[in-house]
Each structure stands twice: as structure tokens, then as C-alpha cells.
Amino acid sequence: MTDHLTILAADIGATKTNMALFNHTASGYDMIREQTYLTREYDDLLKMILEFLPEGMLPDRIGLGAAGPVIEGTVKFTNLTLNINAKTISEKLSNTPVVLINDLEATAYGLAVLQADDLETITTDARAHPGNMAVIAPGTGLGEAGLYWDGRSYHPFSTEGGHCDFSPRTENDYELLRFLQRDLGVEHVSWERVLSGAGIYNLFRFLRDINKEVDTDGLTEQLLTTDPAAVISKNAADHPICSKALDLFFRYLALEAANLALKVKATGGLFIAGGITKKNRHLLNKSVFFEHFCDKGRLAPLLREIPVSIVLNEKAPLLGAAFHAVNNGRYR
């Protein structure tokens, strides 16, 4: 591997795109420049890259993580017209090597370069065993990924598990499901509809409109003019309805995190990424979260052994995209 490389990395989301330049040396990844763009303002990622790069500069490698299913070097977004084609970008930039992966796959690669203080442990007694790992990340949407352990190294892979069916348990859960089916005009309601920024607002509206929680004084105008999830989080200490919405969010996050952990048998650990959990972790009751996480009947003993951590470093997808570009997909 070359001793020194300049890497352009991007974390491309439905709302914003973070782009950075890294100097990669034997000592690690040093960020030398970073910029955030509104994704909807661009119809072609190449335009954004050319705007970001200093005039006349070409990086040695480009690593891209995108919030959507990546197939043969392209990605299709659900609600965006943004065009991304790794081969075309490479050709337009003098055949600079370009890798394009899912953003949660990039986050999974990012785990390879995170430090101990980039993580906050939720489970204090669980002990990691050699084995697969998993990542779940509520944000604009709900991302999920796994890391397959072959006995020597990890192999991250993306999923679209956030779009699987929300699975109610209690009568209140069923009321929420019926509320969202009516509200969305569909039968299929995914986990993303409750585990995302929009999901937090869905939970708030459910409590307000169906459970008749009325403590909304002073919130209505804020909800109309500001990001609703941010308003709800900010007011959790003063408005019980906001606190209850966040409690529901964390309960559902624990349940779906456990589903993912079981599906990939994540004995090596489960990691919660994305800005929502990090910013609201002061509202998280860790013991209650772990109780819900382990509430899987006969498989509870397995889940109690799985370490669960919050990823505090929001640059993990950028670092992972850069890592993947440098290492050609080899985790470690």
C-alpha cells in the first residue's frame, strides 16, 4: 500500500452530503478539508465533487457512501434525482479509482478506525465474543448493516432492513400501526416510519391525536417552522408528550436492534450510529433499553451477551468510505 494517499470521501444522504479530504499515512486519516452540501440542490454528484475540490487537484482515491441500495456502481434514491455512477465519475476525473458503497456499509468500515472514546457502551456486563457484528442507524431514514466474521477479519455488508415491516406487540403498538396505515394510506409500515427523524414526529402525532396527550402548549408553531424531531428532543424535559415520544422511539430502537442482532447473530457487538441517538442519549435509560433489547423469549440469554454501543463519532461514514477506498474492501 502507498505510504501517503489523498482520499476524497463522501457521506451522501437524502438531506445533506458531507464531503471531506483526508491525508492517509501509516499513522491514520487526517482530515484536511470538509464541506456540507444540501443534496437536493444537485442532480449529479460529479458537480458537487468538482465544486469541492481545489482547482486543478485530483485525489488519489475516492470513496463514496450513499443512503440507498448500490448495484453495479450506481445507486437509486427513493426521493432524489441525484445521479451517481462510479465509473463515470472515475472517467471524468482522469480515471481516479472510485468505490461506491451503501452509507451503512461505510459506517461499518468506519468501525475499523474508531477509537475507544468514539463509543459509549450501553451494556456494562455483556462481553464480546468472536463473531459477526451489526450496525443500526436512525437518521433521515433507518440504515442497517452487518459485518461477517470469517475467523480472521470482518466483511461489512449493507441491508435494506429498515424497510421491513414494523412489528407491533402491545395494543398500543397496534393502535400506532393502524394510525400510520391510515395516515400513509398503505398497509405496509416499515420500521423506518418510527425509527427516523420523521418517525419521532410520527410518534408525537400518534400520542397527540390518538392517545390524546394534550401538553403541546407552545409547540405547534415550532413544529411548523423547525425540524419537528429537533423540537421534540429539545422539549423532552418540559413536555411529557415529547418525553413519551422519545421513550417510544428508544423502545422501538431496542426491539429492532435486537431483531437485527439475532438475524446476523451479532455476538461481536451491535453498534448504534446516526446523529439522533447520539444527540438524545442523555434521555436514554440504559437499563430499560437493555431490558427491551433482551426481551426475545428463549433467545434472551444470547442477547444479554451482546455488547451494545452508541457511535459518538459522526464522521464514521466518512472515515469508513475513506478506509474502504484505501484498503480495497479489506476490513483488517
Write the layout of secondary structure elements.
Layout: E1 5-12, E2 16-25, E3 28-38, H1 45-52, E4 61-66, E5 70-71, E6 74-75, H2 86-92, E7 98-102, H3 103-110, E8 119-121, E9 133-138, E10 142-149, E11 154-158, H4 171-184, H5 197-209, H6 220-225, H7 228-234, H8 240-264, E12 269-272, H9 275-279, H10 286-293, H11 300-304, E13 308-311, H12 316-327
Helix pairs in contact: 3-12, 5-7, 5-8, 8-10
Description:
This protein is α/β, with parallel strands linked by helices. Helix content is 36%, strand content 22%. Strands 8-13-12-9-10-11 form a six-stranded mixed sheet, sandwiched between helices. Strand 5 and strand 6 form a beta hairpin. The radius of gyration is 20 Å and the shape is globular. The protein starts with a strand and ends in a 5-residue tail after the last helix. 45% of the residues are buried. The mean pLDDT is 93.
